Predict the 3D structure of the following.
Amino acid sequence: MVRIESSDLDFSGRRVLVTGAASGIGAAMARAFHGHGGTLVLADQDADGLAVMEAELGGSSSIVFDQADLASVEMLSIQAGPVEVFCNNAGVLWTGSFHKMPMDEIERVVTVNLLGAIRAARLIGMSMLERRTGVIANTSSQLAFHGSAERAVYAATKAGLSQFTKSIAAEWAPHGVRVVAIAPGRTLTNINAGLLADSKRHEAGLKGIPAGRYAEASEMARLALLLASGILSYVVGETVISDGGYVLL
Ligand SMILES: NC(=O)c1ccc[n+]([C@@H]2O[C@H](COP(=O)([O-])OP(=O)(O)OC[C@H]3O[C@@H](n4cnc5c(N)ncnc54)[C@H](O)[C@@H]3O)[C@@H](O)[C@H]2O)c1
C-alpha cells in the first residue's frame, strides 16, 4: 500500500536557502519549509523585509544580497554555507511595450532572472555536488510556456531558466543533486502590484484563467515543498506548472 508518511515531508535538520524570501512566493516558501522543520537561510535585497521574516521564523538567519551582482551572489554562497534545499526564487518583472523598454531595464530583467539565477545555481550547487545530495527548485513562470504581450523579456528569461533546469538536472542527477522548477501562474504578490491596482486589467486578466482566480503565494510554496520532499523524489528536470489552467487556452 502506498502511503504518504509525515516523515516524507520532514525537513528537520535540513538547511533550506530561499532567495526572494522577503516577500510573496519566497516568503511563503520560507514559511512552508519552516513549518516542516527546516532551518531557513533567508536571502533578499530587501533588508527590512528580511528582518521581519527572520523575526517570524525562529532559528532562521538572513543575508542581504543583490542577485544582479556576481560578487554579491558569491558572497551569498559563502555566507549561506552548505544547504540541502535551494529555492532559487528571486526575480523581477517589467511590464510594457517591448519597443519602449529601456535598455537598462532589459539588462536588469535578464541579469536578475536568468544570469543571476544561473550563477546562484552554479555556486550553491557546487557544495551539493561535493556532498552528493541536495535539491534545487528554480522559480520559472507560466510565461516560459505561453507568450505574453508586454512581458517579452521576462518570458524569455523564464523560458531560459526552464531549459537550464532540464539541462543541469540531467548533468547533476547522477551525482545525487535533483534540479526542478515551478511555474507559477499569476499570483497575488507585490510583483503584480500594478496589475492588481488597476481593476480593469485585473478583471481582464482573470478571463484567461480557467480557474477564475489568481493564485495565493502559499499554493506555490506547497508545490515547492512537495517537489523538494521525498514524496516527489523521482521528478527530475521538470518545470511543474501551477497556473489554474492558464497555459491550456
Ligand atoms: N507573482 C506572480 O504572478 C509570478 C508568476 C510567475 C513567476 N513568478 C516568479 O516568482 C518569483 C517570486 O516573485 P513574487 O511573485 O513573490 O514577487 P515579489 O516581488 O513579492 O518577490 C520577489 C522578491 O525578489 C526580491 N528581489 C528582486 N530582485 C532582487 C535582486 N536583484 N536581488 C535579491 N533579491 C531580489 C525582491 O526584493 C522580492 O522580495 C519571481 O522569480 C517571479 O518571477 C511570480
